[in-house]
Amino acid sequence: MLTQETARKWIDLFIEQILENKAYLSELDTAIGDGDHGNNLARGANALTEALQTKNPETLPELLKVTGMTLVSKVGGASGPLLGSAFISMAKASQDSDDLATVLESGLEGIQKRGKAVAGEKTMVDEWVPVVEAVKSKTLTSAFIDETVEKTIDMKATKGRASYLGDRSIGHIDPGAMSSSYLFKTMMEAGVYDE
Amino acid sequence: MSKEYGVLLVSHVTEIADGLAKLISEVAKDVTVKSAGGTPEGGIGTSFDRIEEALSSFEEETVLAFYDLGSAKMNLELAIETSDKTVNLYDTALIESAYTAAALLQAEAPLDAIEEQLASLKIK
Questions:
Q1: Which CATH number describes the domain made up of A4-189?
Q2: Which CATH number belongs to the domain containing residue B10 in this structure?
Q3: pTM, entire model
Q4: Looking at beta carbons, which residues of chain A come within 8 Å of B50?
């Protein structure tokens, strides 16, 4: 169920996951990008911890908005404006709906509006599109989240920094899809998603 | 020399944005050129906050904005959405196009003539 309480737990767990996997995310990004994905997100995660403590947002839309604005301001790499836009769009959607699929779909729209990416370009969108579908059909599992990350290995990047590598981007996990997989796994763990 | 237009340079690296501003000042000494390069900590990346700050510091109502790589564009677009300036964002080769635009502004060329020159420098 999507409430202020479960979403707060979700974001706290996501922050934890990012900090724990900071080195791994940067390692993935070193293969096909500029090697800073983990460090950038960790900077955002630390700023987020602080912002949530100071502002202590009491409603779901406020919580999602503070999260989005902080990510936009503090992350530095492409994931800042992208994940930030997702949360800002989700904040708007959550004013009218507490249906997770509806809210996540708005988040995906926020990402696509900002990054202009579609499915199959080896970006975080390749994680978001199947997950949003699975949430809609209530078939989301942890294994499915892993599978969608693995599907980015064979993709050739046509958006984002990895696209400069052309065919050489094939054979690697997309770091943005990986970090979004942490977002969705912690969403399950926090009880935001329930079948 | 009109003070109608300003030029904003956004790069992932402070020195690239500042260095380009230096290069441009040679041909466009009366044009307001501002740079927003790197993260606030001086690292590599772009910053929504720095871009927003630079944008709002222009006296000019219209700003021609140039950037290096994709994520710079995303932060620029976010800043444009929250700014009350008119911002024209160009998907052109950063150095060549910012130089061209500033030189033509200095020569008091109209915006449509400048944009015609920029069109051939579109690379992204």
A1: 1.25.40.340
A2: 3.40.50.510
A3: 0.92
A4: none
